[in-house]
Amino acid sequence: MVEQRHSRRVSGEGSIYSRADGKWVGTVELGWKEGKRARKVVYGSTKREVLSKLKTARQQLEQGIQPTHDRLTVATFLNDWLKAVEMTVRPSTFERYRQVVNVHLVPGLGKHRLSQLSPQQVETFLAGRLKTPKPRQLIVPGSPPKILTPRTVKEIRTILVVALNKALRQGIVGRNVAALVAGPRVPHHEIKPLTAEQSFTFLGAVRGHRMEALYTVALTTGLRQGELLALTWDDLDLEGGLLHVRRALQQVKREYRLVETKTAHSRRSLALTTMAIQALRDHRLRQIEERLAAGSAWDGQWNLVFTSTKGLPLHGSTVTVEFQRLLEQNGLPRQRFHDLRHGCASLLLAQGVELKVIQELLGHSAISVTANTYSHVMGDLKKDAAQRMDAVFVGLGRKPA
For a FRET experiment, which of 41, 157, 264, 394 has its CA 20 to 30 Å from that of 119? Predict the structure, then answer.
């Protein structure tokens, strides 16, 4: 049966016509945008196909979803999203977004039309990043790496979910297909911070070291590395024994920046231990000597507490490498610098400090974060609680059966 190409348009059907090349075209009114009448144009090989697309567009409008152009690709959308999101997140966060979009998402999913992207395509893409390449597999320069850790693949999915959430809010898509796909299971990293004895050994080993104060403050306050490296002398009240966390230090494209703390809860004031106060006083005297020795070469524009011998900000990886060298030199187990933060929390919990207090000291956004992070220590505390409960009744002369 030959399809009639110039039939009468049914009311509500939209404008439909066939072109000279045989393709059918349909339009539906989207209302007024920026003083201009907006329309959505759809194409199809048959009139029936165009009618189906127009029906979908009208249903989206009725649901408050703004139909997007069929030809909008994932790559175009993600690049537009990057431009819009740059001013709303921290520089390091944006840089990570940009890397993931350019290295992974655009090469892997960019060619697909956004309106047609399916959960199956996202799932296949993510699974492909976890596959082990065949022996002697040719790696094309500029292509995304084929082997990624589950944690990295999960991060890629998370960033895609964040981007598509904006498309969902704007009515560009009717659902977030990335949110419908489960991310890979990430192996649990068991936290093994330094014990009280090991911490004592470490602090004794770094006594007199140029960065003694840095390690002491890290272990006794639980500050994040970026928060430590952003401390200025104006943030310290050594007479009152207080430290104020206001910023974090980040390096983006070889440029150091002082940025807002990770969350609003991260802005906090902490009481310093006597040991930390003394270490900071010694550090200030040492820094004054270094500044005098450097002369005009000293660059202390931010009045930072922890700097290079020329007053420049310290690079996080440099600090970590030196920290791990000191651990190895003193026969202590290898640690990430961040594990000093975990060590602080674990020691406080072991001393019976309330979980709520530790949450505020660490700047966690919720007490559940603190409880989940340090569940390994909580187990020992639960045993201690049970033993204390036994002690209550034994003290009353009632021994357990």
Answer: 41
Question: Within 13 Å, how many C-alpha atoms sit on residue 397's CB side?
Answer: 0
Quickly tell me which residue has 């220590």 as its tokens: 377
Q: Please state the rounded mean pLDDT for residues 168-183.
A: 85
pTM above 0.90, yes or no: no
**Domain boundaries 74-180, corresponding CATH code:** 1.10.150.130
Q: What Å distances lie between residue 209 and 7, 76, 214, CA to CA? A: 88, 52, 10
Q: What is the CA radius of gyration of the chain?
A: 30
Rounded distance between C-alpha atoms, residue 315 and residue 301, angstroms: 16
Cα separation of 291 and 300, whole Å? 9
Average pLDDT over residues 237-261: 89
Spell out the alpha helix ranges (H) of 119-259: 119-128, 150-169, 196-205, 212-221, 225-229
The number of beta carbons lying within 10 Å of the beta carbon of residue 295 is 7
Task: Please report how the helices 196-205 and 212-221 are oriented relative to each other, as an axis angle in degrees rounded to 10.
Answer: 160
Q: Which CATH class is domain 196-336?
A: mainly alpha
Inter-residue contact 365 to 261 (CB < 8 Å): no
CA 147 to chain centre: 21
Sign, CA dihedral 79-80-84-87, equals positive
- Listed residue (30, 36, 39, 35) closest to 61, CA to CA: 30
